Structure formats: structure tokens, C-alpha cells
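Thread: "does anyone have the structure for this chain?"

Original post by V.I.:
We have the sequence but no experimental structure in hand. Need at least a predicted one for the grant figures.
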Amino acid sequence: MPGSVEYFIWFLGTFLEALVVLSALRRKVFKRYFFLNLYMLLDCLASFARFRVIEHSGLSSSTYRYFYFYSDALLTLVLFFGLISLYMLVFQELKIDRHLRLGAVVLLAGTAWFSYQVVSQSSARMLTSFAFELSQNLYFVGLILTYILWAAVVKLRELRAHVIQLVLSLGLYFSAFAASYAISNLRPGLYPHMCYLVPIMGCLLPLSWAYTFWRVPQDTCLSPARLAAVSR
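Reply from O.Q.:
Generated one for you, C-alpha cells below.
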């Protein structure tokens, strides 16, 4: 069973996810970023469901692993819809939103198909292995799509601060989790030492979004090109 520190980080992340939704409702931006808020709401509910599974089956049980990886894969799919909605907001001026939506769907479907082909040829044929591979590949594809989106954002003269901060936080989120999956594959012995790091990384995304919705005025605009120049 997780210890007190793990439980604290877990419930902190759940609280921050709920705070994102409440902040979006309070600032009346829930509909504008519907899929992003839907992801946070579902992630919050999934946290409670995982806690119930741990209570009944234990943290090291195959039931929990099965539930965790499949729920994580489904949540990442919802996050992809949120990412695509950000694409639509950014590319309205570039008039390529249809092509982008089609490309994202094709890329996502191709990732799922590739994962299934890899896992289905395995001698173990474990459903949990497929879920792990799918989550890993989705995070990697999400990382690529987010950086492509940021490259488009930098070309715009001016954009809402909300969109800029949401894209930046998503880039950091996908980078962190893609790296954690890569480490677990390359150095499996290091995975137990990441029991604190991974949940903490999961808290950073809702913390960033909650701050964005709660503290940053909706109509505030920034110059992405200047931000990119400063970061260099």
C-alpha cells in the first residue's frame, strides 16, 4: 500500500485537478477549453476509482495495473482532443484547421494500430502490455504534436495568454512523462525510485492550468515571438 507521502501527493493532484475545473467555471472559460476541462474532470474521477481499486486489490495487483494503464490511455486520448482544440484556436488565422484535425486523427489511429501490432506478436499477449505500449506511444506522439503547435504559436504576432500557457504546460507535461516511460524501458531498476517523481510531475499540469484560469485575465494577449526570444 502507498505510504502517507504518496497519498498526500495523490490527493494534492486530485485537488488541483478539481481546482482547474472550478477555476474555469468561475472565469467562464469552461466551454472555450471544454476538452481540457473534461480531461481534468475525468482524471479527478479516475483518481478516486484507482484508490478504490487499490483498497480492494492492492497496489501490486494485476487488476490495478490493468485499470491504471487502460484508464491512463483513455485519459490521454481525451487530452488529445483538448490538444486538437488548441490547434483549432491557433490555426484559425492560418486556415489549415481541417488538415490538422485529419492529420491528428490519422496519427493517433496509426499509433494505436502500431502498438497493437507490436504487442499482438508478443508471446505473452498481455492486455496490460498493450495498454502500457499505447500510453507510452500516446505520450510520445503528444510531445511531437505539442512542439509542432508551439512552432506555429511562435509565428503569430499576438495570442491569448491562456493559450500560450496551456501549450507550454502541455509541452512540459508530455516531455516529462515521455521521459519517464523511456527511463522505465532503458533502466527498469530506476523505476521504483520514481514513485515520488511521477506523481509530482502529474501535479504540475493542473497547478499550471489552475493558475492560468484563476489569475490570468481571459483577454490578456502576449507576443509568442518575444517569449521565444527571451527563453533563448
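V.I.: this helps a lot. The radius of gyration is 18 Å.
O.Q.: and The first helix runs from residue 4 to 26.
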